[in-house]
Design goal:
Blueprint lengths: L1 E3 L8 H11 L5 E14 L4 H18 L6 H11 L3 E12 L2 H4 L7 H8 L5 H16 L5 E11 L7
Parallel strand pairs: 1-2
Antiparallel strand pairs: 2-4, 3-4
Bound molecules: S-adenosylmethionine.
Amino acid sequence: MRCERVTQHLTEPDKAIAELVRVLRPRGRLLLIDTDWDSMLPDGSSTLLRERTPEVIAILTGQVSKGDRTAGRTLHRRMIQTGLTDVQAEPVTLVFDVLADANQLLPLDRHMVMGIMGDHPAAGLCSAWLDALDECVADHTFLATLTIWVASGSKAGVPQP
Ligand SMILES: C[S@@+](CC[C@H](N)C(=O)[O-])C[C@H]1O[C@@H](n2cnc3c(N)ncnc32)[C@H](O)[C@@H]1O
C-alpha cells in the first residue's frame, strides 16, 4: 500500500498512518513518501537566501497547510511507533538548477507565492526573497535542493487464505 505527499497536510498524521496499518493485509508493506520542507535550500550569496529561507518556507507552508512541514523525516519514527517492523527510510534529495523546473514542486513561482501570501504581514519578505532568487536566475547561478523521504514498513501477522 502506498501513500505519497499526503501526511504533510494532516493535523493528526499518526491517526492516519494507524488507519493505513489497520487496513493493510497481514505481512503487507506500507510505503509512505513525504517532503521535509525544512530541507529546502536555495544557494545564493544574498543574506535573505542564506539566513531567512527557513523562515520564508515555514510561513509559506503554513499558509498552504496545517500539517507538519517536516513530515518526511518523521515517517521513520511514526511508522515504528505505529507498530510496523523492518522500517526503512531513505532520503531522496532533488536538485534543481532551472527555476522553471523547480516551480513544478517548490513554492517559488511569484504569482503563486504572492497569491498564497495575500495580505500576510510577511508578504514583503517573501517578495524580497523571490527577488533574490530571480537575481540568481539572472546570473545563471540558481540552485536549490529539497529532500523527500521514502519510508516503508511491514505489518506483522499471517495472511488470510
Ligand atoms: C501533493 S498532493 C499528492 C497527491 C498524490 N498522492 C500524488 O502523489 O500525486 C497532496 C494531496 O493531499 C490531499 N490532502 C490535503 N489535505 C488533506 C487532508 N486533510 N486529508 C486528506 N487528504 C488531504 C490533497 O487532496 C492532495 O491530493
